[in-house]
Amino acid sequence: MKSYSQIYALFLMLVFCTSCRGQFKTGLQKESIQSETKNIIAFAGPNNITRNIIQDIRGNIWIAAFDGIFRYDGKSFTCITHKVSSSHFFSLLEDRKGKFWFGSIGSGVYCYNGKSFRNFTTKEGLAGNDVTCIYEDKTGNIWFGTGNGPSCYDGKSFRNFTMNGGVNAIIENKTGKFWFATTGDTFFYDGKSFAVSLHDGKPFKNVRTIIEDKKGNIWLGGKDGLWRYDGSTFTNITRNFVGSIYEDRKGNIWTGSKSANSQDLTPSRFDDKSLLGSVNADNLWVLSRYDEKFLSNKTPIITEIKPEEGMICGILEADDGRIWFGTSNGVHRYDGITITDFKDK
């Protein structure tokens, strides 16, 4: 498994990054399509590290975990990738055409149309075979964050960007600028050139997650905690390590982070070895909700939920308002009072 080398950082003074140059990959090899085999249906969900959770247009919950891609229809789980790949899955996306993309560690990305799979790797032009995030931009291009930098796929070919490390998160903000968070610095891209984002003359290091809220604020989480950028000023919310950020329909911000009382056991990378190590200890991580009404306060109102299940990775508010989140021990659901796990008993 490749280690993720350092790169990227954030705003204030923009320094053009000459080492980031676009490269086009054309002439894809013949499609590699696998017919869907019989899937495993069970009442239990994943039992391993769960990295990402989404809900599709039909209401199904999709889960990317180290033991496969799972679909939950409200009654039972189906392992979609059983017999297709034994890779650890890290990321997933449903695009505007209804196709699903599954990012793996070591085996590239799989495109699933509901019946068959197509696998893209470096042989087809993907920048790297460790795919840690997937994002669809406003024009319908699919972006993949890999251990070797980002790849942009337009449906025919890949455009790769050379960077000195792996990409943790990609977003396109309301103004059309792209933000790239990595284990090194954080960049943004205006379609022509890359710039390192700085705060007080220094880049943000080891940013693991980044979102834009409904008001246009950019939220960043990682080694240096949780930060909000309103277009002119960065505000620090917490210094505790933050691994995931999510905004619910009411505008509340949810995070998966280390608890204030935990030791500094921040993993140097998000892989199976680090996640199964010390960060798997109970009481180190909390699911936090920052009340939307008090987000602008210096001391926001925070509700902390302690699942005692190790690292929290990936957060989703389902259509019914319940919060789903992944941990190093599977997937869980929070209804505002109790936490339900779906592990095999």
Report on the structure:
With 345 residues, this protein is mainly beta. It has a domain at 21-25 and 35-162: Methylamine Dehydrogenase, Chain H, CATH 2.130.10.10. Helices cover 1% and strands 46% of the residues. The protein has one helix at residues 272-275, and strands at residues 15-16, 22-25, 33-35, 40-42, 50-55, 61-65, 68-72, 77-79, 88-94, 100-105, 109-112, 116-120, 131-136, 142-146, 149-153, 158-161, 167-172, 178-182, 186-189, 194-196, 198-199, 202-203, 207-212, 218-222, 225-229, 234-238, 242-247, 253-258, 285-290, 302-305, 312-317, 323-327, 330-334, 339-341. The chain has a five-stranded antiparallel beta sheet with strand order 1-20-19-18-17, with no helix packed on it. A hairpin with a 3-residue loop joins strand 11 and strand 12. The longest helix is centred in the C-terminal third of the chain and has 4 residues, at 272-275.
Q: Mind telling me the C-alpha Rg?
A: 19 Å
For the termini, the CA-CA separation is 31 Å
What is the number of strand segments? Answer: 34
Name the CATH architecture of the domain at 21-25 and 35-162.
7 Propeller
Structural class: mainly beta
Uncertain regions spanning at least 5 consecutive residues: 1-33, 263-282
Number of helices: 1
| CATH fold title of the domain at 21-25 and 35-162 | Methylamine Dehydrogenase, Chain H
Instruction: Provide the β-strand percentage band.
Output: over 45%
Largest sheet: 5 strands, antiparallel
For the biggest β-sheet, the strand order reads: 1-20-19-18-17
CATH class of the domain at 21-25 and 35-162: Mainly Beta
Helical residues, percent? under 10%
The mean pLDDT is: 84
Q: Tell me, what's the shape? A: globular
Name of the CATH superfamily of the domain at 21-25 and 35-162? YVTN repeat-like/Quinoprotein amine dehydrogenase
